[in-house]
Amino acid sequence: MKFIDEAKIEVVAGDGGNGVASFCREKFRPFGGPDGGDGGKGGSIFAVADRNINTLVDYRFAKLHRAKRGENGRGSDCYGKGADDIYLRMPVGTLIADQNDGAIVADLTEHGQIALLAKGGEGGWGNIHFKTSTNRAPRQKTDGKEGERRDLRLELKVLADVGLLGMPNAGKSTFIAAVSNARPKIADYPFTTLHPNLGMVRVSHEKSFVIADIPGLIEGAADGAGLGVQFLRHLQRTRLLLHIVDLAPFDANVDPVKEAKAIVKELKKYDDSLFEKPRWLVLNKLDMVPEDERDKKVKDFIKRFGWKGPMFRISALTHEGCDELVKEIYEHLAALRQQEQREQSGLAEAAMGIDSIDADDPRFKLAD
Length: 368
Known about the structure:
- There is one protein chain.
- The protein has helices at 58-61, 172-179, 256-270, 272-275, 291-305, 322-352; strands at 6-12, 45-50, 64-66, 86-91, 94-98, 104-107, 114-118, 149-156, 162-165, 197-202, 208-213, 240-246, 279-284, 311-313.
- It is an alpha/beta fold.
- It has two domains: 1-156, Spo0b-associated Gtp-binding Protein, Chain: A, CATH 2.70.210.12; 162-343, Rossmann fold (3-Layer(aba) Sandwich).
- A six-stranded mixed beta sheet has the order 10-11-9-12-13-14, sandwiched between helices. A five-stranded mixed beta sheet has the order 3-1-8-5-6, with no helix packed on it.
- The longest helix is centred in the C-terminal third of the chain and has 31 residues, at 322-352.
- The protein is elongated.
């Protein structure tokens, strides 16, 4: 299946049915009075997050989604039937925005989450609603309201804890295949990865996290070179970025330091918030460097690159250093989750206006 992470659609909710002005015409009821029923409501359109879908390909060509209108009311107090609602299944991680003003309509982050895209029109009133003691034969009725119409932009941002960043052929696909259940295409030429890949990394039976691999970046990607920077959106939800660098490129003229700086430059061009995310440096293809030259080459790279953050040396092909890196990643993510839980509990206490309970506080003493 072709991976599609962007789509534009139009959603049109159904109009409400019209109310009717009708009078009872039954035998033995000469003054039966008004009996016009209301119109039915128009169908609404909802989006539903479904974890069994991983692409927006269904909306690449099916651009118009229209719900049916409600039935008109009828005499004898018969109300019109409401139209069925439409539910559009979308991948978890889909961001839905209005094309006209850019407002966020919904952000589907959990399986089963439902969001209203376009509300159906309410049905009109029949003349039974206008009956009063002074107006016993009302002829008023109202028409149904129009349903909402929206032009929407769908943007899929995959949900992952860790994102892989690097030049083409840096070994990102080999790494995600070595540590997770993902099986991406791996070859000895650049741009092997053409769409994001997700993999579940299992540290133990109850400990795991999700890692995302995106197509490689090159210098000038922000200006359209290579595959561009469009896939960087899939890293915006991650908690940690792994900058994977090829420490032993095939071409002797390629400078790993220059390539690493180019990646950082393109990241900053794309989004400052993505640039500010926690980022670890991972020097890959250690098996291609002779053992007696490894320390010198790593120190030279760190010095020229000016890196001061966490750094790891691995070989994705031989799995050297991968287990230690995976454990460090999980501990980092676990610490972030604990910090978020503490912050949430602190906000809850602040909202209650009670930081701690003092036994001597008269507010908490029982009356005599």
